[in-house]
Amino acid sequence: MATGHTDPQRRARILAATLDHIAEEGVAGVSHRKIAARAGVPLGSMTYHFSGIDELLREAFTGFADHVVTVFEDHLGRARTAEEAREAVTDLVHTLSEGPRRDLVLTQELYTLAARRPEYRELTQAWMRRSRHHLERHFDAATARQLDALIEGLTLHRALDPAPHDRALTREAIHRIVTPSS
């Protein structure tokens, strides 16, 4: 492996190692020493690239949020009709809930951190705004907000349930939100 300034991937490896570590041991277990060892970089690289643990966590979680927003964009960007948009939301719930357990754990770790610390709330609020932006391409703002919350809730419930609900229930829940009541 290259050293010092000749290793352009070092920062990215540190961020990836941080997320891997959080997924396995939680935010509370993050330290410069543990992340450096996991990333295979000298301990001094940690302070060279990041001013402290908070900067490391914010950047790692920002990258993770970018990943999830890309999943939203990929699903919702293909929809051309209202029906396709509803089906894209269904697919999104099932993709996220059936995806890597790592992503579910990282999401919950970020939410826990955001519940405790305002600077991480800002990060989650920005993430939610970006997710809703993709939903608002197909739904009004109020419906997009409700769908965003539904996606989070159904994803979590499906991921944690030993017998997760099927696509029909997801479609019905989406239909109830997007269909105006009489």
TrEMBL record:
Q: Sorted alphabetically, which InterPro entries does this protein's record hold?
A: Homeodomain-like_sf (IPR009057), HTH_TetR (IPR001647), Tet_transcr_reg_TetR-rel_C_sf (IPR036271), TetR_C_31 (IPR041583)
Tell me where in this chain the HTH tetR-type domain is found. 8-68
Q: Does the keyword DNA-binding apply?
A: yes
Q: Which residues form a coiled coil?
A: none
Query: Which stretches are labeled DNA-binding?
Result: 31-50
Q: Which UniProt keywords apply?
A: DNA-binding, Transcription, Transcription regulation
Protein name, please? TetR family transcriptional regulator
